[in-house]
Amino acid sequence: MITEETVRTLAARLDTAQRTVTDTLSLADTHTLAVDDAYAVQAALLALREGRGERITGVKLGFTSKAKMEQMGVSEIIVGRLTDAMCVPDGGAIELDRFIHPKVEPEVAYRLGRDVDPADPDTDLVSCVDAVAPALEIIDSRYRDFRFTYEDVVADNTSAAAYVIGAWVSVQDVSDRAVRLSGAGREVAGSTEAILGGPVNALRALLDLARRRHIPLRAGQVVLAGAATAAIPLESGETVCEVDGIGRVGVRGV
Ligand code: OOG
Questions:
Q1: Could you tell me the pTM of the whole model?
Q2: Pocket around ligand 1 at a 6 A CB cut-off
Q3: pLDDT tens across 29-43, in order?
C-alpha cells in the first residue's frame, strides 16, 4: 500500500492536470500502485472535486468491451464517477479547450429509480433501473498520449471527462441494438453486444464492483455501461450517437 500522503499527492497531480489542461506522465513511472491504491487515489481525487462543490451524478464503466480488454491486457472492468460539472445537455456545445486530447464513445445509459444497497446479497440492480437513454461519453486521459497502466487509469477516474444523455425512455431490453457514432468526418458502427455481451451484464458487473469498492448507488443516478465501439477523436462540429430503437444524442464541439 502507498501512504495516505502519497494518495493525496497523486490525486492532486491528476486534479491539477485536468484543471490546467496539461498532461502528466504515467504514475507507474515513479510509483508502484496496487489496484486498491489506485481506487484510493480516485476517491481522493473525487473528494477534492466535491470539496469545490461538484456533485456526484452517477458512475461509468470502462473496459467493458472485449477489444478494449485485449488492448489493455486485462480481464476486469473499471469504474469511475460522474459529476454534475461533467454533464453537457443533449445538442449542447462543448468547449474543446477544456480538454487535453478528448475522444468520444457511444454508450447506453441507465437511470436508477431507487437507492441500491450493493452490500445486500438480494439486490438485483437490473430491477432498480427506471429508464434507458443513448449517451456519449467524452474520455480525456490526463496521461500523455493516453499511455497508462490499468492502475493509472483507475486513479485517473477512468479517463472520464464529460457525458451527454439523450432523452430517457422507459426501461426496455437494450441488448443486441445497432449503434452508430459519427463525428469529425468519421463514422463507426457497432452493437450493444460489445458491452460485455449485452449492457445488462455491465449492470451485474457494476453491482459486484460497487460492493467491493464501497461505491454507493442512489436513486436518480446515471450508469454509463461502457463503449459500444472504439472511441473517435472529439473535434469541432457535430458528434452524434444513435442506438437503434432507443434514440439519438448529440453534442457540438466548439
Ligand atoms: C479508458 C476508459 C475506457 C471504456 O468505455 O472502455 C472507457 C480509456 O480508454 O481512456 O471508458
A1: 0.96
A2: 62-64, 68, 105, 139, 141, 146, 153, 158-159, 226-227
A3: 999 999 999 999 999
